[in-house]
Amino acid sequence: MKGNFSTFTYECGCDEAGRGCLAGPVVAAAVILPAGFECPLLNDSKQLTEKERDILRPIIEKEALAWGVAEVSCTEIDGINILNASILAMHRAMDKLGIRPEYIIVDGNRFKPYAGIPHQTIVKGDSKYLSIAAASILAKTHRDELMMHLHTEYPEYSWDQNKAYPTMKHRAAIRLYGTTPHHRMTFDLLGDNKAEAKLRIKAKADAKAKKDLKPKGKL
What we know:
alpha/beta; 5-stranded mixed sheet; 42% helix
């Protein structure tokens, strides 16, 4: 895996996690690694086990010259679409850096200029450049941690296992229980891409919420 794409010292790698999920935020990370950084285990987060990612996270956070993690909510995703939300999350992550990047490299093929800093998109960049791989691990581990927390509030959807990705079990739970405030209503929640189905499950969830708010017992 390569170090810098550019000749700049402060080159920032960016990546996101949760773009294809049905619920929860999209999370992005930005990482600036020191020159000569080496870590044999470091790779694209999707190629690593959960245990390996958990080992790498504190190493990256300790050794990086600067790192930032940020999210864009499901409501924002529904308002601006997932592509724009992913880019916005990366911008927010870079807002948290203690060092201003001189150059930005981004996993994928779409990005919007940030603070007048030159950038380069790189398809499969998370398997080619160390800083993007590091960003992919931070984004993934931070988002998984968040989904584990949300699972305690909504255990029916098994987010501790599927992290809100469109598994059969997740979609079955949506059919049975309706949606939560964390579901992305502009997404194909049931896998049939039918708008009327989305309206039905939203109505079911709204009705359940109203029922839960009604006072129980006699005053």
